[in-house]
Amino acid sequence: MLMSELIIKKRDGGKLTAEEIKFIVDGYTAGDIPDYQVSAFLMAVFFKGLDREETLQLTMAMRDSGDTLDLSGISGVKADKHSTGGVGDTTSLVLVPMLAGKCALEQRKAFATSVAVIAPLCALSAAIYWFRGQLDLLLALPYLAGGLIGGFVGGKVFKNLSMTWLRRIFALLILYGGVRAFL
């Protein structure tokens, strides 16, 4: 397979097979496909889109490109994220719309739930870095204080905002996160 042929196929509106999608993900993660070709592929996907099957195959290929955990011993619905290990603002940019749309939560409840998911992950990550001697606690404390004050003030303001303003603010945050991710 040639990456250039797959770019052209998607650019022209063709449907990619599971093997072709796996080739792209495996090739890129192995360093065999350069950034500029993946950028061209992503531009083709942006303009032509992926159907449900292609989206599923891309998700599965990305999942299989990293380490996975067997969660079959845990009953109920499970959710995970493909990650480099960092937890930041962009997690809630994905989590809030998912909770609001797929779980039918009201916007405020979706945001609050995402914070409840992210906060323990951040605390756990910080503890691991601290035990490894990789956390400068004196440097982190002023930011922690600012984050706590900002969270308290934000929580008070948050409940008084109309849903229209909440949606606008969240849309701007999504836009900012997307632009920041590409710069």
N-end to C-end Cα span: 31 Å
Biggest pleated-sheet summary: none
Uncertain segments are 82-87
Taking all Cα atoms into account, the compactness measure Rg is 20 Å
Strand coverage percent: under 5%
The percent of residues in helical segments reads: 55-70%
Inertia-based shape:
globular
Q: Count the strands?
A: 0
Order of helices and strands: HHHHHHHH
Question: What is the mean predicted local confidence, pLDDT?
Answer: 80
- Number of helices, counting only DSSP H or I runs of 4 residues or more: 8
Q: Which structural class fits the helix and strand makeup?
A: mainly alpha
Structure in words:
The structure is a single chain. With 183 residues, this protein is mostly helical. Helices cover 70% and strands 0% of the residues. The protein has helices at residues 3-11, 18-29, 35-48, 52-64, 89-101, 107-131, 137-158, 163-182. Helix 1 packs parallel to helix 3 (35-48) and helix 2 packs parallel to helix 4. It is globular, with a radius of gyration of 20 Å.
